[in-house]
Structure formats: structure tokens, C-alpha cells
Write a structure and sequence with these properties.
This protein is α+β, with helices and mostly antiparallel strands. The protein contains eight helices and seven strands. The protein has a seven-stranded antiparallel sheet with strand order 4-3-2-1-7-6-5. Helix 1 packs antiparallel against helix 6, helix 4 runs parallel beside helix 8 and helix 5 runs antiparallel to helix 7. The longest helix is centred in the middle third of the chain and has 37 residues. The mean pLDDT is 87.
Length: 304
Amino acid sequence: LQEPEEKKIALELLETEQAYVNRLHLLDQVFYTELMKEAKTGKTVPEEVVKMIFSNISSIYQFHAEFFLPELQKRMEDWNCNPRIGDVIQKLAPFLKMYGEYVKNFDKAVELITTWSEKSPPFQELIADIQKRKVCANLTLQHHMLEPVQRIPRYELLLKDYVRKLPPQSPDRGDAEKALEMIFMVAKHSNAAIAEMERLQNLWVVYQRLGLEDDIVDPSNELIKEGPIQKLSTRNNSTSEKYLFLFNNMLLYCVPKVIQVGAEFQVHLRMDVEGMKVRELKDTEFPHTFLVSGKQRTLELQAR
């Protein structure tokens, strides 16, 4: 007798969940616990650093090991008289918001592992020792840490497949479709949160390079493009090096600072994008030149 397609997918979900819980166990109960123990003796790295590396992995591990996996196992044991997993996945979805914090922290965590491995040989050795164990399967800590980042998209794919293979009259159809929608929202939410974090992070870096001028710092700004440019001076037919930052609402015309203390650039002119015009010039002596004119003034610029 051929197993129904949807059951195969549900079993795959269960098997991957079991493997995933083992991976979370390794991260939380082995790496985190042992690194923390050593940190407490004050020999490797500050405890704070270990906490920052592993973020909220303990909560994620506990949730999957003590709640989601057992519920899924129960469902699969009862499959023949009650073929459904949609209800369990609906219970899972809200908890997946915990991943936002872990995912957001991921790049920082990897960076910390690298920095502290260089700073503290005992820290590096301990990680290397754990990595040599059979349970690590010759993979690095960073590699294992990537697994939670990839888990939500995996749920989404499996569930999509499951819903597609369900017979129209299946008792699980309504629940499974609702569960898929919930997982989809969480996945979208965590991706949007990451994108927004990155945008703000990049914006902040730009503001620091500009010396944090009050009237420029605005979190709703979006940096579109930046780069060096030559300013043409018609008077003495020469060019000088300048730098442009184009935001959604303004163009900043800057001068690179020679002595870099704090800021890299001095903002010389701020031009509103509203009412700004750009016109190409056909200058044989200076190719790639154009005029930018705004309410404030007109600039003659040459690109590379």
C-alpha cells in the first residue's frame, strides 16, 4: 500500500524536526553551556560575550524540544485515525517570532566568535575541542548556528507542499491553510525586520561619517547612492574632489576631510530633491559632466 503524499511530507516534517532539535541541543546544551562554564571561571571570555553570541537560543531550544516536537510526534502516532498537523503548526506560528531576535543578532554573533577567537586562544581551543566531537559532524560552530536562521523558510516550504498534496475533502485542509498563512506572515515579518534593521544600521553609519549634523539625522531617510565626484570650476578650468550622498529627500554635497577625527566629510551644501533638476552637459574638454540645480544653487559636476 502506497503511503498518501501528505503523510510522507508530514513524516518529513517530523524527521527534520527531530534532527533540528538535536542541533539546537548541541548549540544550547553543549556549546553555550560549556562556553558559559568556562567564561564563569574567568579564563576565556567575558560571560556577556557568550550571552551575546547565543542570543535567545535557550528559549528556542526549549520550545522545540519540550513543546513542538512532542506534539508533532503525538500527531504522527495517531495519524491513521486522525490525519492532521495543521492545528499543531498553528500553535507553533506565534512562537516563531522568537526567531526575530536570533536572526537579527546572527551577523553580530559570528563577528564576536571571530574577534574573540583571535583575542583569546583558550576560547578558540574550547570551540575547536567541541567541534572535534562526533556530534558536530566536522562542522563549525558558525555552521550549526546558521540552522535556526534557515528553519522558518524550511517550515514554509514543507507546509506549502503539504497543503498542495492534501485531498480537497481532507479534515486538515482548513487548519493547514491557516497555518501556512501564519507561517508566511512570520517569515515575511522576520525578513522585513532584518531589512529594516540593516537600513537603520547603514543610515547610522552614514550619519557618523557626516559628523551627525542635527538637521540631517532622520530615521525615515533612505540612502540611495553615494560616491566621489569632481567639482568643475569654470573660473580656472580645474576640478576638485568632492563627495555626494543622495537620499530620497536630499542631496548632500560634501568635502572629504583631510584630518579624519570623527567625521569623514564636511557637509557643504544640502539640496532638496524636490524641485531639483539634472541636465547633462556636452563639454568636450570635460566628459561626463552635468549640472545639478536646486532651489539653493547650481553645481557643475563631473563623474568618473
